[in-house]
Design brief:
Strand content: 5-15%
Shape: globular
CATH superfamily of the largest domain: P-loop containing nucleotide triphosphate hydrolases
Strand order of the largest sheet: 1-6-5-2-4-3
Radius of gyration: 26 Å
Helix content: 40-55%
Number of strands: 6
Oligomer: single chain
Distance between the termini: 68 Å
CATH class of the largest domain: Alpha Beta
């Protein structure tokens, strides 16, 4: 087996260093010029939440509503289920969406889907959240602002790599309205959580601390639960999905005070009020003290999200808080 290094890119990036000619940091005219002269999809990196707000105001003030039934319907849906006063309602009508870490994941995914769709959103204004596990690309990328953001050179290269799309537009247009981060060597350190270590592949004479912890944990839990119960939980990925400290606490408490866990079946009840005692017990074991009642109430409230809109849930939460 041989490794052959090749210098090849499926898409060519055409970099425009516009920041070199901008006077007094007045980037708005250049932004308007770019957006007015392209019909292609455009990703605008804002850097921070205040910059998203500033860009949103520019788009709302300087661009007309698009004649799109799809976008009008989506805008109305956001107004009904979130708030009609939210700037995103008007932004969508302009063919522009936003993407950041504060949005509900589903709302971000809907906007990305509309951005990738012909006749959907034309622009996306985003923080670095767009480069964190989001699969999308655009003909144009506008680098608007990096101030106060934690974008390093590696993140910047990831961002501009969204420009262009193979088999659609092989040249990505990158517009730098601000000087990019300095090129620097990045060392990536990937550390595996101990919960993901496969006990079966660990040599028993290992001196690695995490591997030793994994051997001791699985041995202890196997003795407590018995071989069959342990294997069943392991095959379901239970130990990989949960913190080991919490698993040990739950098992120890169930063995020492079995009667207090007789009500576990109530967690399958459709009435969230039946969950109260068990939720308090579980959260107490997990070290939740000061806000335990709030977390229990929130858990019961969140279970109704399949049947109620977000405004209805927020109204219920306010009533619980006032009570």
């Amino acid at each position: 087996m041989k490794i052959k290094r090749i210098d090849f890119n499926t898409v060519f990036l055409n970099i425009h260093d516009i920041y070199k000619t901008i006077q007094n940091n007045d980037k708005k005219p250049e932004l308007l010029k770019i957006l007015n002269n392209t019909e292609d999809k455009t990703l605008i990196y804002a850097g921070t939440f205040p910059q998203i707000a500033a860009l949103s105001k520019i788009v709302i003030d300087d661009f007309p509503d698009l004649d799109s039934g799809l976008l009008n319907n989506f805008s109305q849906w956001v107004a009904t289920n979130y708030s009609q006063d939210w700037e995103l309602v008007n932004l969508i009508k302009k063919g522009t969406g936003i993407h950041n870490g504060r949005l509900h994941r589903s709302l971000s995914q809907i906007q990305i889907k509309l951005f990738d769709k012909d006749g959907g959103l034309k622009n996306i204004i985003s923080t670095s959240s767009i480069i964190e596990g989001v699969n999308t690309s655009a003909k144009n990328v506008i680098f608007w602002n990096k101030a106060y953001s934690k974008l390093n050179y590696f993140g910047y290269k990831n961002l501009i790599g969204r420009g262009g799309r193979m088999f659609k537009h092989f040249i990505g247009e990158i517009y730098l309205l601000e000087k990019p981060p300095i090129d620097e060597e990045i060392q990536l350190s990937l550390e595996m959580p101990k919960e993901l270590i496969d006990e079966g592949n660990i040599p028993h004479d290992t001196n690695d601390v995490k591997q030793r912890e994994a051997i001791d944990f699985h041995s202890e839990i196997r003795d407590k639960l018995g071989f069959n119960s342990y294997n069943k939980l392991k095959s379901q990925g239970f130990f990989e999905d949960n913190k080991w400290s919490v698993v040990k606490l739950l098992i120890d408490d169930m063995q020492q005070d079995q009667n207090s866990w007789n009500g576990l079946i109530y967690l399958n009840n459709k009435d969230p009020e039946k969950w109260t005692n068990l939720l308090h017990k579980i959260k107490g074991l997990c070290g939740v003290d000061g806000h335990q009642t709030k977390l229990v109430n929130f858990t019961k409230l969140a279970s109704q999200s399949w049947n109620k809109t977000i405004p209805e849930l927020l109204s219920d939460e306010m009533n619980i808080e006032n009570f």
